[in-house]
Amino acid sequence: MAVQWTTNLAVGIDKIDDQHKEIFRRLNEFIVSMERGEGREYINKMLTFLQDYINAHFGTEEGFMSEYNYDEKSFSNHKQEHVKFSQTFTALKKRFEEQGATLFLGIGIQQQVNDWLLNHIAKEDKKFGIYLRKSGKTQK
Ligand SMILES: [Fe+2]
Ligand SMILES: [Fe+2]
């Protein structure tokens, strides 16, 4: 497996962590299908997953952040990154609509999602987990 969810990425809220595990699982599935030369068939499936993920997951996280009084600056930075990823996704989807499921697009999706895992989940999401533990809002 190319990328793996590990407990040090845990935010401490099961609903969020389960959704994170799912995006790792999906990316791995996608990488494997690309390696097998079946990536083009998987592109549409991956884009549909990402669309749902953006709608459901960002709402879940922002809901908890507001419920647990995450400080305003961190909350607004975090939301900004969610908006940025939504824009990245929209650009990828547009490429799909205009050019179809090209291998080049498959590589682009893989890179963008991988970058998201490393730079958002492992940093910004994790920061929220640290806040929750520090403030005693979660034991995990
Ligand atoms: Fe997240
Ligand atoms: Fe997030």
Notes on the protein architecture:
This protein has one domain: Four Helix Bundle (Hemerythrin (Met), subunit A) (Up-down Bundle). Helices cover 79% and strands 0% of the residues. It contains 4 helices and no strands. It is elongated, with a radius of gyration of 16 Å. The mean pLDDT is 93. One fe (ii) ion binds next to helix 3 and helix 4. The site of one fe (ii) ion has 5 residues, from helix 2 and helix 4.
What tags apply to this protein structure?
Four Helix Bundle (Hemerythrin (Met), subunit A); mainly alpha; 140 residues; elongated; 4 helices; binds fe (ii) ion
Helices and strands, with pairings:
Elements: H1 14-35, H2 39-67, H3 72-99, H4 103-134
The site of one fe (ii) ion (FE2) has 6 residues, from helix 3 and helix 4.
The CATH architecture? Up-down Bundle
The major sheet is characterized as:
none
Q: What are the segments in which pLDDT stays under 50 over at least 5 consecutive residues? A: none
Question: What small ligands are held by the chains?
Answer: fe (ii) ion
How many discrete structural domains? Answer: 1
Give me the CATH superfamily: Hemerythrin-like
Strand content: under 5%
CATH class: Mainly Alpha
Average pLDDT works out at 93
Shape: elongated
The level of helicity is over 70%
- Rg, Cα atoms, Å: 16 Å
What's the order of the H and E elements? HHHH
Distance between the termini: 26 Å
Structural class of the helices, strands and pairings?
mainly alpha
Q: Tell me which oligomeric state these chains represent.
A: single chain
The CATH topology corresponds to Four Helix Bundle (Hemerythrin (Met), subunit A)
